[in-house]
Amino acid sequence: RLEAMRIKTNAAELTATADLTSIESVANFDLNVEDIALIEPKLSGAMSLKGTATRDLNGIIVADLTARDLVSSIDLQAQVNPTEPSQSITFTSASNSSNISQYAALISRPLAGALNLDLTGTVSNGGADIVADITANTRDLQTGIDQLDPLLAGAGSVSANVSRINSDQFVLKNLDVTTPQTTITANANGG
Question: Is residue 149 within 8 Å of residue 182, measured between CB atoms?
């Protein structure tokens, strides 16, 4: 049992608790960093990461994570069920960024605009099978691709269902991309 761990420096503070038993376990942590550049030099600014994980008597793990920086937030909930034959992981994620230019250096290309992205899905069979629903709302996205950026101006939306089956078959269902300049709908199979 870890009742109250606390590590504090001028640059960061970490607090954590844990109660690990053979019946049920729970752990919590809270990390605050003054400047994320200490962890990833291509980023800057304050960042926080909080999380809770529980494991029940059946071995089912539930995790809740929240990350925040100056312009973005990510909330992730996941459940790992090792008792199912496919050992599934179900997840829900909500990401919001008022200015994605903060992350341009990570992918070495210009980025700008706002993005709200929601993902829900399941991963099973050791990652061989993935099913996910994607919903996004955008505002004035810029990717640095001259042919694409004019089509992304203004408010936009994206939705789709994507799947990977047996690591080698890919399915895209009900893709719907809408901006003031264009509408794209598609379905696709490959493998």
Answer: no
Cβ 72 vs Cβ 54: under 8 Å: no
Three-state SS for 72?
strand
Pairing relation of β-strands 112-124 and 2-8? unpaired
The backbone torsions φ and ψ at residue 132, rounded to the nearest 5 degrees and listed phi first, read -145, 145
Instruction: For 25-68, write each residue's pLDDT tens digit.
Output: 999 999 999 999 999 999 999 999 999 999 999 899 999 999 99
Q: Which residues of 153-185 are buried (b: 16+ CB within 10 A; e: fewer)?
A: beebebebebbbeeeeeeeeeebebebeeeeee
Question: Going by C-beta distance under 8 Å and a sequence separation of 6 or more, which residues neighbour residue 55?
Answer: 24, 25, 26, 61
Residue closest to 118 by CA, chosen among 160, 152, 155, 154: 160
Rounded Cα gap, residues 94 and 160, in angstroms: 15
Token pair 């690990």: residue: 20
pTM of the model as a whole: 0.86
Retrieve residue 121's tokens: 């899905």
**Side-chain half-sphere of 94: how many Cα atoms within 13 Å?**
3
